[in-house]
Specification:
globular
Length: 206
């Protein structure tokens, strides 16, 4: 049963990857709005019904959305070492997802396509908001904060914003690797973006 289950999981991963690869290839060739689910399924050599077993719509296939990423992130959040800072946990989570997305060698192409397509960008924002809500709830619990606390929500949201900023910057500066940009972004978050912020530093105060 173990070997059979492992084979089944590998087959699912291969099918998901084939669909995401076909979706990206077609979107790059025709434009995201011109691609159909039927074309993606045909290119991946599966049925339309199989497509919908993996993705709710074509945009998620082009984005290569994988619910396992969120599952792993939530598990990483729950099992983080007690001494690990919340921002460090988010940094490790982002790098874990990044490694997975980089494995097909299409991260830059996908990122550039997303940033050039209002439809894909909108879908990415929608899915990111839902992910951030679940991660915020998990981080709030881990930090022992009451529901509705600002700090866990800001940490998760800042990490998500850092990712989106990095993808936009990489589009305009493709010579800088995405992991390097991410590390710089998280370092800035850790140091405090505006260390001079505060009422005592406002100009014109008497």
């Amino acid at each position: 049963m173990g070997a059979e289950g492992g084979l089944r999981e590998r087959k699912k991963l291969q099918t998901r990857a084939a669909l995401a690869d076909a979706a990206l290839r077609l979107a790059l060739a025709k434009g995201p709005d011109q691609v159909t689910v039927e074309e993606i399924a045909e290119a991946a050599d599966v049925s339309v019904r199989t497509f919908f077993n993996y993705f709710p719509h074509k945009e998620h296939a082009i984005l290569a959305r994988n619910p396992e990423h969120l599952d792993r992130a939530l598990e990483r959040m729950r099992t983080a070492p007690a001494g690990e800072s919340p921002l460090t946990t988010m940094w490790l989570i982002v790098h874990d997802v990044l490694r997975d997305l980089e494995s097909d060698g299409q991260l830059s192409q996908r990122g550039e396509l997303i940033m050039s397509s209002p439809t894909l960008l909108y879908q990415l924002m929608l899915s990111s908001i839902d992910d951030e809500r679940q991660l915020t709830a998990a981080l709030t619990e881990r930090m022992g904060e009451p529901a509705g606390s600002i700090r866990p929500a800001l940490i998760v949201s800042a990490a998500g914003t850092a990712c989106r900023v990095v993808m936009e910057l990489h589009k305009n500066a493709p010579d800088r690797p995405i992991p390097e940009l991410l590390d710089e972004a998280f370092q800035l978050l850790a140091q405090g973006i505006d260390t001079a912020f505060g009422p005592d530093n406002q100009k014109g105060n008497s």
